[in-house]
Amino acid sequence: MTDRAAAPVDRIPATSNRSMSEEPLRMRAWMGCRFLRSHLVGWLVAACCASPAGAFDGARAKAIVDTIASDAFQGRKSGLAGGRMIEEFAAARFLAWGLEGGGTDGGFFHEFPMLVTEERSAALELLDGPYAPLAFQDGDDFVLATNSGSGERFAEVVLAGYGVSDARRGRQDYGDLDAGGRIVAIVREEPDRAYVWEPAISRDSTLEEAVRRGAAGVLWLRGERAIAGGAVHEGSYRADIPLASIGERVLGHLLAGTGYDVKRYRSDLAKGPLPLATGKRIRLSADVRRVEGGSARNVVGIVRGSDPLLRDETIVVGAHGDHLGIGAHGLVYNGANDNASGTAVVMELARSFAERDPRPARTIVFVVFAAEEQGLLGSRAFVADPPIDLGAVVAMMNLDVEGHGNGKTGIGGAASFPRSFAASSGGSTGARRGARRFWTRLGIFAPARKRATPSRSSPRSARCAAPRGEALARSSSVSARRRDRSRARGSRSSALSAPGSSRSRRARMRPAWNL
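-> structure tokens emitted (515 positions)
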């Protein structure tokens, strides 16, 4: 871990602009709830470990994973009994550890309405097999989409490519295909990289297009095996249209006798629209109950900052505590990695900071989000009806899928917060290089050789050229102290920052934005 990554959280330089006008907290970034996962983790854990009274305990975090990923929590699906259990569990722990409630009316809960459904049974059967009807395995060959409708359909399957009908981009996957009364199968991939295809390729949009054309049901293919957890949002929900995710084994049987196998169909589809009537009939059955008056709750706890100058600034640390519940096949989706692991880290960080003496400089808000698996609904609600002052938030860290155990950290959010992402990836050479290629491809930042060398008198040049170990000037002015902290944080040796060096070019690529 580098020195920068190990710096305690109360030493993070103060922001030079409270309003963050350069990069406001946009709703789409909050709704994604995946932006800025960075070496802020190191700052937080290092700050906890610096004081024995508030040390982060990995065994405690693992114990939380063992508890909430057990069958007793019924898969933690928001809006159902298991979802209530994780909400009550997190709130009770926050209360016991001495956190302040950050939810509605000073409590720990931030409740919001949502579409809630419960799967009861499902079946998928090929009726026109070469020897006899073939029943596919629920949970392996197929799974119901979250918020599928109910019903039993006996119908022919037609393939509608990527399911896109977009005249502006010149993509018509349906062609002359008649989808009326049929079950439409759709490959969930991008047609090409010449356009940004969202939301046209989203589950909601492709469903709406299929329903508009009279489809009796929809199947989506993503990978080799069926992928559980794909949700349809309330605006696209149809109670009478069964929906499922399928694996390549199902598609292979549907393509038999058409002249295509799965690999060739996907390869040719990448070259252009490929509508195809398979001539195969299937039985698709789904029994899904809608829960009237559905709702879920984010859990919000606060550790107040202690620094007179910084305590009004807020860092949000969050993770979604929900998972997929119990499938129609009756098996529990325990979700140990996704995302009991992230929830456990957030909760153990909350305990650590609550017990730490002294308290951190800034206020830290810990959030266990609900209903991420049903379409990022908890984070959407957090922004639409915020229980805290979002204007005071200077950074947000979201922890998702922390249980891989391979020693790697994924950093996301470049598309929403390119400048923040640049600053956060400074501690990792690989992440920095990957981010630079991403920014250059999007045209957000040009390669260093195409940019004029910054003036030595500019603040950014000063950040790059300041020698390591340079003493901070001690000024009585708050603005001067912040400027000095910013320079110290961005310090580089004079030799490595010489004009023309690769390190100097990388430094110039990184915007001067402080958390």
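The two ends are 19 Å apart (CA to CA).
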